[in-house]
Design goal:
This is Putative ester cyclase. One of its GO terms (biological process) is polyketide metabolic process. It holds the Pfam family SnoaL. The protein starts with 11 loop residues before the first helix and ends with a helix. By secondary structure, the protein is an alpha+beta fold. The strands form 2 sheets. It has a 5-stranded mixed beta sheet. It has a two-stranded antiparallel ribbon with strand order 4-5. The longest helix is centred in the last third of the chain and has 21 residues. It has a single domain, classed as Nuclear Transport Factor 2, Chain: A (Roll).
Length: 180
């Protein structure tokens, strides 16, 4: 994506919208352009431990986590509005579930793994941002997680899919131990 920082708008709505769009294909430098060094993502409780830091590294880690599981990841922006430094962005996240999606505990341990279903999804999301110094400094969201799970066939879980989940979790834990 690589945008020249000189042409990046510091308008709060533009910054917030861009921070959503680069989740699909932005490089680390793109995140540095729009995410404040002190930024916090209030939605990273189930994400990899690498996303539980401040600043661009947090948001880039989240992007890589999503991209690893969902091929063709992209966002449709429907509405965005600001009230001072607070920005609300209504969007739809789209993609295809092509690799395991790993969820983590608060302690950073692997909790649940959803093996790939090959299904596509379009999940509505509302993202909320606080912008300071022309960059995102805080993020939280409301997502249609139930709709997401239904579209991907995670619920209602079949006995076969539950067995696949158990195998995927065991494999992810082995891989995590080997990488530690």
């Amino acid at each position: 994506m690589g945008t020249n920082p000189a042409v990046v708008s510091s308008d709060p709505v533009s910054v917030a919208v861009r921070s959503v769009l680069i989740m699909a294909d932005g490089e680390f430098a793109d995140f540095e352009e729009v995410v404040h060094p002190e930024a916090r993502d209030r939605e990273n409780k189930i994400q990899p431990p690498s996303s539980r830091v401040a600043g661009p590294a947090c948001f880039y880690s989240t992007a890589l986590w999503l991209r690893a599981a969902f091929a063709g990841l992209h966002y449709d922006i429907h509405h965005a509005i600001a009230d001072g430094d607070l920005v609300a962005v209504n969007s739809t996240m789209n993609g295809r579930h092509m690799a395991p999606w790993v969820m983590y505990t608060a302690e950073g341990e692997i909790d649940t793994v959803f093996p790939p279903t090959g299904r596509t999804f379009a999940t509505t999301q509302s993202h909320w941002f606080r912008v300071a110094d022309g960059k995102v400094i805080e993020h939280w969201a409301n997502r249609d997680d139930m709709g997401h799970a239904l579209q991907l066939g995670w619920i209602p879980p079949t006995p076969v899919y539950l067995a696949r989940m158990a195998r995927a979790k065991a494999k992810a834990k082995r891989a995590a131990r080997a990488g530690a």
